[in-house]
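Chain and backbone:
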Amino acid sequence: MRVVAALLITLFAGSASAQVQGVKLDEPVDMPPFAFTNELGEDFTDDDLNGNWTIVMFGFLSCPDVCPFTLGNLEAAVAETGMRVRPDNVPKVAFISVDPDRDADFVSEYAKFFHPDFESFTGSRDQIDTLIEATDSFYRLMKPDHTGYYEVQHSSSVSVIAPDGTLRAKLQPPFDPGMTAEFLARLQIEYRKELSQ
């Protein structure tokens, strides 16, 4: 990873499957201008990052495992975070489909299946690539088979963006909800201390 802390914070809670793997970046990374939308006409742009903690995840709607698992995991983690931080500091979750050709017509429905406040969008290839690069994420559309069907590979980590619009941390599933909430709460405390200096 590009600019991550030397210390990978991994906390265990009884077993290897109950943990949070949080990587805090050495230095905040500014997010570039971007614009995504969904079929309802709702927008998600870099302006929406200002004043909010935001978790951004990439994937695609027909993903058989990583996306539904991670979004379900995030729902539990965000609920736990809500018991540790002020309501206005509970992170918003934005799911970005990297497969607009297949997903654009009904992308808005996907994230809301996991939580009514989660939102999902897609956009042009250049907009997707811009945010993928800025968050040090990854995806690849595989070569179509004879029927035209193609698979999509993508990173499973999610990006945590602070209210000043800078990338501050990456989280790698699986998330233990309580420990992930503690990680996010500590990240917010450190951010407030930084602002007060």
